[in-house]
Input
Amino acid sequence: MTNRYVLDAVGPISRALQQVQDMGLNLRTDLSFAYTSTGAVARVADRSAAHRETVHALVRDAFVAAGWGVSVRYKDGLSLEHPSRMTRL
Output
């Protein structure tokens, strides 16, 4: 299933990075995406980066718009849950 997650994450990642560029944010640190059994984790590597919260918000908004579940991780970053893993009511 991970291959599906990677393919489905390309669009939201691309949109978030485009917004970072449009806002003129200069990422001097890594923005990482790691795939998990339920989706992915996104985080700005430098916890002290001034734009960290802004970048996380752009990533969150892009994934929510694509139907993914998003939650703030206890330690750092965002947990991104693939739509196929979310419970439908």
Remarks:
- Residues 44 and 53 are 9 Å apart (CA to CA).
- The two ends are 23 Å apart (CA to CA).
- The chain has a mean pLDDT of 86.
